[in-house]
């Protein structure tokens, strides 16, 4: 996601935060998130969106995580795309956090899920 900043560092069009009601499902970039309960979110990697955003190799559709409140998850994905001027390589880094309930004094350690593929 790219966010435009103003001179003071604040976001021009900050993303909105919406409360989850019931068992909602949302598509966020290469992820499909399903809210199974207020304190549990299933995260699925979507193959077709990975191909669109990252090129090759293909990342198959599969569940990659179960988010819990205030336990950050870092996901690394890479790919290779072609253009008229040659090939370029893409590295995407995502940070997912389920913000619900009371905010803790400290966040737990960030889990890292490295889904980078060998591009050679």
What do you see in this structure?
This protein has 120 residues and is mostly beta strands. Helix content is 7%, strand content 41%. It contains 1 helix and 7 strands. It has one helix at residues 47-54; strands at 25-28, 31-37, 40-45, 62-67, 73-83, 86-96, 111-114. The strands form 2 sheets. The chain has a 4-stranded antiparallel β-sheet. Strands 6-5-7 form a 3-stranded mixed β-sheet, with helices on one face. β5 (73-83) and β6 form a beta hairpin.
From the structure above, extract its key features:
120 residues; three-stranded mixed sheet; 7 strands; mainly beta; four-stranded antiparallel sheet
Calculate Rg over CA atoms: 16 Å
Number of strands: 7
Mean pLDDT: 84
Query: How would you describe the oligomerization state of the chains in this entry?
Result: single chain
Number of discrete helical segments: 1
**In percent terms, what proportion of residues is strand?**
35-45%
In short:
The protein has one helix and seven strands; from the N terminus they run E-E-E-H-E-E-E-E. It is mainly beta and 120 residues long.
Write the layout of secondary structure elements.
Layout lengths: L24 E4 L2 E7 L2 E6 L1 H8 L7 E6 L5 E11 L2 E11 L14 E4 L6
């Amino acid at each position: 996601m790219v966010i435009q900043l103003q001179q003071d560092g604040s976001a021009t069009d900050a993303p909105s935060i919406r409360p989850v009601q019931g068992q909602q499902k949302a598509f966020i970039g290469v992820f499909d998130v399903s809210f199974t309960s207020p304190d549990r979110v299933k995260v699925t990697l979507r193959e077709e969106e990975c191909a669109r955003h990252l090129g090759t190799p293909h990342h198959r559709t599969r569940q990659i995580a179960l988010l819990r409140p205030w336990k950050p998850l870092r996901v690394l994905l890479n790919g290779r795309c072609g253009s008229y001027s040659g090939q370029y390589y893409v590295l995407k880094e995502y940070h997912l956090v389920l913000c619900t309930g009371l905010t803790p004094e400290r966040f737990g350690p960030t889990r890292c899920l490295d889904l980078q593929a060998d591009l050679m």
